[in-house]
Amino acid sequence: MTGGLLGGLRLTIASWKSRMIEIKTPAQLDAMRAAGLVVASALAAVAEAAKAGVSTAELDELAEQTIRDAGAVPSFKGYHGFPASICASVNEQIVHGIPSRGQVLADGDLISVDCGAILDDWHGDSAVTLFVGSVTDAEQALSDATRDAMRAGIAAVTPGARLTDISHAIETSVHASERAHGRQYGIVREYGGHGIGSAMHMDPFLPNYGKPGKGPRLRVGMAIAIEPMLTLGVEETVELEDGWTVVTADGSRAAHWEHTVAVTDDGPWVLTAPE
């Protein structure tokens, strides 16, 4: 298996028609919320610790300890051979960055941290982009645009909508940010969101772009990880020789935001939002 199967799932749209999509009961969504709160706590701890002079391996150890202290299990560690509990993607790294002692954060770095946890057999998955010290206005705008796109996607999660209504909302938000910021962003197309529940990665695959009105209808009890990834340059990506780390093809910086979201009669329920 390649690294394309971790956070930022890489699949094909054909899976919409070929596989079943898991529908959760209210009790099961409650269990997913508990797992989501563990992920939120781990990311909060990492955000507090992500300072110049700290290695990404130290951040990984902190996240794993936070998850295990809550009685949960890191869902990334050992997943298809991935060696860590978080993905720590620094600067031009988009997703799947492997934490290491040699990757020491410095002032001006941008780091996207993706984290998953399993609690009572149910999964939570979320990602944030963090800054170390001072950053440029362009990098701040990049993260803001990515987070706004995620929020737009979340707002499109309503019963009866089509899957690509979420995709279209994400892309529309990116273009609105481009107009507001006076620049273009690369929308990473090879990786996107995914179903989640009793497994970390499930159908359906969710593109971060596209026309509305396509794909399966959203039903109460579905849960989807919504995770746009944007770059300050081109959308093309390169997977490094480690088989995991995905970087921008032009070396530009990237941002990644993600939440696990449930479809309910009352609208989207962000299962990985902090309490």
From TrEMBL:
<feature type="binding site">
    <location>
        <position position="201"/>
    </location>
    <ligand>
        <name>substrate</name>
    </ligand>
</feature>
<comment type="subunit">
    <text>Monomer.</text>
</comment>
<protein>
    <recommendedName>
        <fullName>Methionine aminopeptidase</fullName>
        <ecNumber>3.4.11.18</ecNumber>
    </recommendedName>
</protein>
<dbReference type="GO" id="GO:0005829">
    <property type="term" value="C:cytosol"/>
</dbReference>
<keyword id="KW-0031">Aminopeptidase</keyword>
<feature type="binding site">
    <location>
        <position position="258"/>
    </location>
    <ligand>
        <name>a divalent metal cation 1</name>
    </ligand>
</feature>
<dbReference type="GO" id="GO:0046872">
    <property type="term" value="F:metal ion binding"/>
</dbReference>
<dbReference type="GO" id="GO:0004239">
    <property type="term" value="F:initiator methionyl aminopeptidase activity"/>
</dbReference>
<keyword id="KW-0479">Metal-binding</keyword>
<comment type="similarity">
    <text>Belongs to the peptidase M24A family. Methionine aminopeptidase type 1 subfamily.</text>
</comment>
<dbReference type="InterPro" id="IPR001714">
    <property type="entry name" value="Pept_M24_MAP"/>
</dbReference>
<dbReference type="InterPro" id="IPR002467">
    <property type="entry name" value="Pept_M24A_MAP1"/>
</dbReference>
<keyword id="KW-0378">Hydrolase</keyword>
<comment type="function">
    <text>Removes the N-terminal methionine from nascent proteins. The N-terminal methionine is often cleaved when the second residue in the primary sequence is small and uncharged (Met-Ala-, Cys, Gly, Pro, Ser, Thr, or Val). Requires deformylation of the N(alpha)-formylated initiator methionine before it can be hydrolyzed.</text>
</comment>
<feature type="binding site">
    <location>
        <position position="96"/>
    </location>
    <ligand>
        <name>substrate</name>
    </ligand>
</feature>
<keyword id="KW-0645">Protease</keyword>
<feature type="binding site">
    <location>
        <position position="227"/>
    </location>
    <ligand>
        <name>a divalent metal cation 2</name>
    </ligand>
</feature>
<feature type="binding site">
    <location>
        <position position="258"/>
    </location>
    <ligand>
        <name>a divalent metal cation 2</name>
    </ligand>
</feature>
<feature type="domain" description="Peptidase M24">
    <location>
        <begin position="31"/>
        <end position="265"/>
    </location>
</feature>
<feature type="binding site">
    <location>
        <position position="125"/>
    </location>
    <ligand>
        <name>a divalent metal cation 1</name>
    </ligand>
</feature>
<dbReference type="GO" id="GO:0006508">
    <property type="term" value="P:proteolysis"/>
</dbReference>
<dbReference type="InterPro" id="IPR036005">
    <property type="entry name" value="Creatinase/aminopeptidase-like"/>
</dbReference>
<dbReference type="Pfam" id="PF00557">
    <property type="entry name" value="Peptidase_M24"/>
</dbReference>
<dbReference type="GO" id="GO:0070006">
    <property type="term" value="F:metalloaminopeptidase activity"/>
</dbReference>
<feature type="binding site">
    <location>
        <position position="194"/>
    </location>
    <ligand>
        <name>a divalent metal cation 2</name>
    </ligand>
</feature>
<feature type="binding site">
    <location>
        <position position="114"/>
    </location>
    <ligand>
        <name>a divalent metal cation 1</name>
    </ligand>
</feature>
<dbReference type="InterPro" id="IPR000994">
    <property type="entry name" value="Pept_M24"/>
</dbReference>
<feature type="binding site">
    <location>
        <position position="125"/>
    </location>
    <ligand>
        <name>a divalent metal cation 2</name>
    </ligand>
</feature>
